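Bug report (template v2)

What were you trying to do?
Predict the complex of my protein with KGT.

What happened?
Run completed; filing so the output is reviewed.

Input:
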Amino acid sequence: MLSAVLRFPLHRLCPGPRSLLGSHQAMAASLGPKPLVAVCQVTSTPDKEQNFSSCAALVRAAARRGACLVFLPEGFDYIGRDSAQTLSLAESLDGELMARYSTLARDCGVWLSLGGFHERSADWPSTQRIYNCHVLLDQTGHLAAAYRKTHLCDVELEGRVTMKESSFTNPGTEIVPPISTPAGMLGLSICYDLRFPEISLALRHAGAEILTYPSAFTFPTGSAHWEVLLRARAIETQCYVVAAAQTGRNHEGRVSYGHTLVADPWGTVVAQCSEGPGLCYAEIDLEYLRRVRREIPVQSHRRADLYGTVGLQAALPAP
Ligand SMILES: O=C(O)CNC(=O)[C@H](CS)NC(=O)CCC(=O)C(=O)O
């Protein structure tokens, strides 16, 4: 049976991947419509089945609107009540849940950024810890990239927030070079990584045009830091910044800050979700990005002779 989404012209607003289009100049000359991205805000719970239905409904709605790349937040698969439950629900990248997302990407013909999948890897039997893995699927459902969160959130705000991600998660050991997507070159990070400008600069040096921070921020830290940090990363790197977020009550003991947003390379918030689960959309204008970079060429004004080469030493190839 044909699913409902197939009745809609899915690729109306989506040019093909950069690699198929050739150089930046060819892209600029192509005068096609600007790629549209969709950013999802959800309230994941420990119920994986329910979370999948909610996320899939948002992805289908985004595909109907013509988005070519859809972003889901950290913990899109589930948010566990405690670390024991979080560990017990985790799957591998070739498990059942990823297979369902792969089918979803293929059926809808969209790329999926699945931030913060709880991944059981080959070292699970020995470490009994998981990875916090940002999975990127292409529009045929194939794995385009996987980045494992490198900065783990071990934070204690006295009497308010206790997070000890390292007690159940192994840190990732590498940064992943930006990936060519139909919306632009995409650099992958996750949540707490947002606090480290070094990784954003490393991705920028390696050619990123869009940085993404799928997140599950706490309320006290989110209300003080979320938008400021996201806009700062956008301004410093002159990239689009896309941040899908968990919102609301995930379970009895946890509330997430929400405020899913997209900032453009000038730092302007160009899309934002309101309260509760939902979607926001943004056009990615790479002509505008290039203008911002031309007008304020910070990248060529850096004084590595004075303060070293933050981000440049990363083991990433230059574009
Ligand atoms: O554990 C899961 O299931 C999903 N992962 C998370 O919720 C992670 C680790 S506990 N949360 C953050 O990194 C919040 C960062 C934050 O709030 C800040 O930097 O202020």
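What did the reviewer find?
The chain has one domain: 34-307. Residues 146 and 180 are 14 Å apart (CA to CA).
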